[in-house]
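Narrative of activities, Objective 1.

The group set out to show that a structural description can be obtained from nothing but a protein's sequence at a throughput compatible with the screening campaign. Below is one input-output pair from the validation batch, recorded exactly as produced.
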Amino acid sequence: MAAGDLVGAVLRSVLAAVLSTPWLIGVLLLAIAKVVGLGRAVVHGGHGRDPRRTFSRAEKVALLERAGHRCEHHSWLLGRCRETEALQADHVHPHSRGGATDVANGQALCRRHNRGKAARVPWGWELAGMQRRRRAYFPPGSVTAVVRHGPRVRSTGVRQIGAVSGARALRNVPVDAD
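Output recorded for this entry:
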């Protein structure tokens, strides 16, 4: 028997044993979820944090107006949340995971959906769906894209703002006098 056949036979027998034992399936799925979570933490958590944690009053007003004073959470079954009271300004890409405290990384969420989201980093397909839906309710001419990682101050006195969803292009914007 060749070495490749032997390895294949061993893998098939291990897989058969795992699939025949329900608790091993659960352990395998948990291990896969932990590995994926660790990979996402490495990818999304390695950026320097924006020193400013909370949105300013003016930014909150801009986020609420841009969202039409309605929660931006969208579920595949019920559509967009109808809550209009007690809305909160939320980081789409969480501040704790390197997200910028910037209107470009903000959304209006009701208290329930903000707590449910917690510090979860949205997948690229979720951001694409959000961008597509925002075209329907954002004021005409508004930018619907989310900038995941915000302003980075370089020694040249110029901010770099990363483009959305892994795009490679960066553009330079002069630093504000905050």
